[in-house]
Amino acid sequence: MVCMRTLMILGLSFQGVGCGGSSAYSGLIVNGMDGAGLGDVRIVARSSPPSPDLTCRVRETKTKPDGTFVFADLCRNQNYIMSLPSPTLHLSGTNVIGGSETNQDGKHQAWHAPDGQGVYRLSSGSVQALPTFSDVVRDQTQDGQPVIYPTMKPTGKVITIEDGQHLVISGKNWVKRQKIKPLNSDTGRRRLASGIIRDHVYIGVEWKDGERVSTEAQLDESKVKEVLIRGEGVRYFAHDAVPAGRYALLGEDDARVTIIDFGVSQAPAK
Fold it and tell me: Given phi > 0 = left and psi -120 to 50 = alpha, else beta, which region is 241?
């Protein structure tokens, strides 16, 4: 008796043939950011759905220095889902594999990403959670135009996304609502609904000839990557995804804001 199934694996067609015994699956794990092979990465494959045969449920291997790997004894006619047992390195996509006597090699992307939702900085393979800077005030001009500003004015160094680093936003809801907006310095005296504000900074707003003007971050989408990890979206912003400068990161209704310098620190020289 011959069993046949066809699966789509990251755009590759995979055919598994047979009803018993074992077979191999070979592949390659690459860094999703630059395509380089990742060596010494532990990989676990779990049967899906769980096999009634306990000896077929879990397989484990490691990548070689060039990122290649082999599962030598997968149970034939059994689907497996691959994962990386690391809190900060994850495979994108579904990564379904299976046993076959004539199997195709598969390339799988791994991404340095947090194991939860929020805002992070990726630097040299390390993912660090970023704190917020201050509360925000939602005010308005005398004629009713919205004005948003942090309660504290940053006067020194803030979080900086430097060359080779990335701002990472993790989680479907976070990706959807977090926006990068210019943080504009203003030395003037502004009369707002809540009172007079002098020499402060404003989020996505500046004044020209005394008139309020909205400003937007000039985002270069070619410097932004978005991938699906664990069923959740994760966005990576390169250090030059926006022109070098100081920015605010927040959602429409957020009570607090994260202040970030892209490219180089905007802190005054001492």
Answer: alpha
Distance of alpha carbon 243 from alpha carbon 130, whole angstroms: 21
pLDDT band at 76 (very low <50, low <70, confident <90, very high): confident
- Tokens 């209704």 identify what position? 253
**H helices of the chain, where?**
172-177
Joined together, the tokens standing for residue 169 give: 């936003």
Instruction: Quote the CA–CA distance of 230 and 116 in Å, as a whole number.
Output: 10
Which range is least confidently modeled, 14-23, 173-182, 199-208, 261-270?
A: 14-23
Q: Is residue 207 within 8 Å of 149, Cβ to Cβ?
A: no
Find the radius of gyration of the CA atoms of the chain: 25
Q: How far apart are CA 247 and CA 160, in angstroms?
A: 10
Residue among 201, 100, 215 at smallest CA distance from 154: 201
Average pLDDT over the chain reads: 89
Q: Contact 45/81 with Cβ under 8 angstroms?
A: yes
What is the pLDDT, as a whole number, of residue 104? 52
For the beta carbon of residue 61, count every other beta carbon within 10 angstroms.
Answer: 19
From CA 49, how far away is CA 190, in angstroms rounded? 63
Tracing tokens 């299976």 back to the chain, one arrives at 98
Domains belonging to the chain, first-starting first, are 4-112 (2.60.40.10), 118-263 (no CATH)
219-233: pLDDT as tens digits: 999 999 999 998 899
